[in-house]
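Continuing the series of single-chain predictions for the mutant panel. This is the parent chain; the variants come on the following pages.
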Amino acid sequence: KDNTIPHEVIGSFGGGRVLLKPAGPGTGLIAGKNVRAVCEAVGIKDVIAKNLGSKNASNVVKATIEALLSLRTKEQLFGARGKNVPEKKAL
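Parent structure:
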């Protein structure tokens, strides 16, 4: 949504751990080369990333993919809890 991710997420694979945070429009990709390559490939334009574990490129890429696969929408979260998504109130 809006060229960023909906919420903060941590992905891990082997010794690699990656933290991804949503960023405001125009921020760009603030990430290392491995995370940047994955984010560009999937179309994310604004994100802040931090490598928390291994510097092994293979593990960092796989951890980034795991983080992106664990993202959930608001509808999915509410559905898993058995609740309805609250509607936006008109001003």
